[in-house]
Write a structure and sequence with these properties.
Blueprint lengths: L1 E6 L10 H10 L2 E6 L4 H13 L3 E5 L11 H10 L5 E10 L7 H18 L3 E6 L2 H10 L7 E3 L6 H9 L3 E4 L9 H7 L7 E3 L21 H12 L3 H16 L10 E4 L2 E4 L19 E2 L2 E2 L8 H8 L8 E3 L9 H13 L4 E5 L3 H5 L13 E5 L5 H8 L7 H12 L5 E7 L6 H12 L2 E5 L6
Length: 456
Amino acid sequence: MLVDTHAHLEDDKYSTDRAAVIKNAGLVGLKYIVNIGTDIEGNKISLKLAEEYDSIYCTLGLHPQNCEEATEEAFEFINSNASNKKVVGIGETGLDYYRNTCPKEQQEKMFRRMIAVAKKQCLPLVVHSREAVLDTIKVIKEENGQEAGGILHCFTGDRLLLDEFLKLGFYIAIGGAVTYPSANVLRESVKEIPLSRLLLETDSPYLAPQSRRGKRNEPAFIKETAEKVAEIKGVSFDTISKWSEINSGYVFKLGVKKRGKIVYEIDGALYVNLTNRCSNHCSFCARNQSVIVKGHDLAIDREPTAEEVINAAGDVSKYREVVFCGFGEPLIRVEVLKTVAARFKEQGARIRIDTNGQGNLIHHRNILPELKGIIDAVSVSLNAANKIDYQNICFSQFREEAFEGVKEFIKEAKKYIPEVTASVVGLPGTDLEACRKLTEEELMVKYRIRKFGNIG
């Protein structure tokens, strides 16, 4: 079903018929609406709407045009309400040099602080970037915003912005502008967005699709945008609708009524589920079929803090090892991982990380020295003997950089972690002998074949 990941139903333009607009959205098959906070009063109304309607969730944020509202009171409201189950993100936030109603320095200061809030609250960012591509990317990288992850709102076709946000692991939201006759550049860029990273939005009451251009936009009008995206991608409307629901569910945890397991036991080992996010979309991944692994529900409603993991785990000395391996890539949250691992190490636990080996690509630095002394073993999912096969299997957000990045990670890991293993899933057609030679003769680490379909 369709999901509108960005609307502003708190806007005064809906003051006379807001209930009818929300009802109309449901009538066209819209499952959820995420109402986006942009200022102090809007955050309050958004939260109220989310509490009133089952189909509405909200984010809390401060738009770059409203940086004068970045008071301690505003941030206190955001932080104190972020744990509400209907709050699913932080934003909209970012940089806007088009109108430039606030000085660039103030916008950047607020943006950095909002990223810190998202990381602290373990919620995704909703990023606004207009005529500020390079600075937006710079700030996110400097503040390690990829630890929070999130959405690039209202993508308009800038390929630099697209490529960088895909590498950061963000989702890309497409709105009504894709239907405009002049939006040829945007339509060409939409062809390059993986279905697994695509979201739909209306930005209501703004940016109505072509058939209603110049009129007030509504969440119900998202259907026209979805139809155009399906046409551009050469897939069915049902396919776009399906991915709209799946992706918004992953990034915002919409409809999740209870938290899945953040720690779970299999065969005497304790597994730690830090995130459901991943920089790969592997064809063999268990989450393509189910959120259940060996009887454990791993679909977490929000990412846990370090203290939540530590408290959930209790005394870890009774387990044969602790494994950072959940329903996502654990090294996305390397700071939390380090804190938790260090605490478990104090209890005498043996610590292992199961990873796709893209931690250095994700964080734009060599993170392996930071793991020295707290990690005993790392198992890296190699899965192929060359970059073409790797991308065909793993569909990495880093594309052609991914395979070499994984190899370099394995080589570097040997300097800091006592036990390094490269694993390969025994998929039909995989050249296991070529993978073995690469692992043992070039990378010179242990080699392990994982049985296809055997999880946990």
